[in-house]
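Hey L., structure's done. Input below.
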Amino acid sequence: MEAQLKEFLRDRNPQVRQIALSNLISVISTSPSTSNVSYYTPQSRSGTCPAPVPYPSAQPQEVLALPLLVDAFVHGASVDPSGDKSKRARKGDLHFLSSVFANISASPAGRLFFLTPQPTDTLKADSALEYPLAKIVAFTEHNDTIRRGGVASTIK
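Output:
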């Protein structure tokens, strides 16, 4: 499902991007001690995302995919002083997501997403609210050109 979402987000047709903005994915909460991230996608087909041990016993819940992508983008920029990527929550830098956000913000629904407060914890609807744009605005000064340029385009 994640690969299909990426195809939707790259499409030039605004109606197709609108569908992607409302896409829900199934996730299971994990305890912080068992995983670097707070959720596991049971439909994941990624070889770099094995099932957590012990497997979470919670029931899957449907959440919007785009807030998870924003969180992944922010976590991808985290710096580990040792330089060892295996200790990071995300093994990739995910700079390319800034260009995806720029494409999404070109549509009215995408702009509305970035300018509407969302729960800071995507798995808990009653958590504090924060604007998704506020999470990425700090990357306008990032040293990576792709990340910096994509965020600047998103703001435009």
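The chain has seven helices and five strands. The helical segments are 2-10, 14-21, 65-76, 97-104, 108-114, 132-136, 145-155.

-- N.
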